[in-house]
Amino acid sequence: AEGAAGAAATAQRLCALRSALEFRGFAVRADDDASPTRIVAQRGLVGKFAPMLVHLSLIFVLLGGAAGIIFGASSEVIIPDGGSADIGKVLDRGRRIKGPLYEALNPFRGLIRSAQVRVDDFKIKYRDSGPQKGEVEQYFSSLVVEDTETKDRLFADQIFVNKPLRWGGATIYQADWSLDRLQLYVKGIPIVVPLKALPDEGAGRSWAAFVPLEIIQADDVRVMKRLKNPRQGIVLVCENMRNVQVYDSSQQLAGILRSPDAKMDSKMEGMPVQFGEEITVDGSQLRLDRVVGATGLIVKSDPGVPLVYLGFALLMPATLLSVLPFGQVWAATGEGEDADQVLVSGRTNRNQPAFEEEMKAMAISFAAP
């Protein structure tokens, strides 16, 4: 009778231990739910397998990077506002990088070669206040992807820095900008003047154009057939898409043309030179219609990007989960002279001192008086 009572008391203590383990988040199994003699518990199983997931995600990242180097291509192109470029030809040049197997095994190459990108609109946003007033804040390109042969519109989007366009396995990034040409009116007659970049000597980027004086002073430039003195003329200098500095034939600053799209007053008091949308230069009226920019794009085809994204998507949660400790606890009733005892053992892979303290606290809570 005393042996049966002792066995029942020991089973109750095991039940109390099971309840304490379950309260602390352990998953517990027993050989008998009503009167257990052995139990096993574990907690944080995800922390045991998370390191394996971390290694798997790193493999995905490495494979994705290798696929981009071997099968991908990347190039850059400057396209003026209103212009277009063949996406396939841009990538074929591979000015930045071109994988050795891009021609043979890039899965998107056929689709990319049948499309071209057209710049529908390009604009620059300048800072209106603060210590960096007047500097470029952001530049935007409205792009249209068209079929190379039929010119059908396939896709359109506006891109800017950190917001690329993705289509058909190609990614188009906004990377740079430039100025392409000036649209002017000389005595009411429209002309287009191409711009050329000046050497950067540390004073910032600038572009310039030369217009022969005979064109400026002609009654109708459209009927001109030959220039008698092509070396004499005016110089136009641009540093942004808002203003154009105009130097007359004597190389003196004659005035500043303001773009109609610029956010500023058309008249400014106290200006030492002419300022506005229209000024007089060497006896002729010169009016600025538009400063036309050019967008600098990076075109990239990287079939390894999905693997890289998948790898990082797994890596971040797996890294957090791998911090969780994995612990196991075993408990059983004794035999023979120790039949009234409960033997407990456990192990953990992290923070062993805290685990030992937790086990001691549970052992004291169900220990027999």
UniProtKB/TrEMBL annotation:
GO CC annotations on file: membrane
UniProt keyword list: Cytochrome c-type biogenesis, Membrane, Transmembrane, Transmembrane helix
Transmembrane recorded as keyword: yes
One Pfam family named in its UniProt record: ResB
Entries under InterPro entries matching the protein: Cyt_c_bgen_Ccs1/CcsB/ResB, ResB-like_domain
Taxonomy, superkingdom: Eukaryota
Domain ResB-like: 9-184, 271-359
TM regions (residue ranges): 52-73
Membrane topology: Multi-pass membrane protein
Localization per Swiss-Prot or TrEMBL: Membrane
Gene Ontology BP annotations: cytochrome complex assembly
PANTHER family tied to this protein: CYTOCHROME C BIOGENESIS PROTEIN CCS1, CHLOROPLASTIC
Protein name: ResB-like domain-containing protein
Species assigned in the record: Zooxanthella nutricula
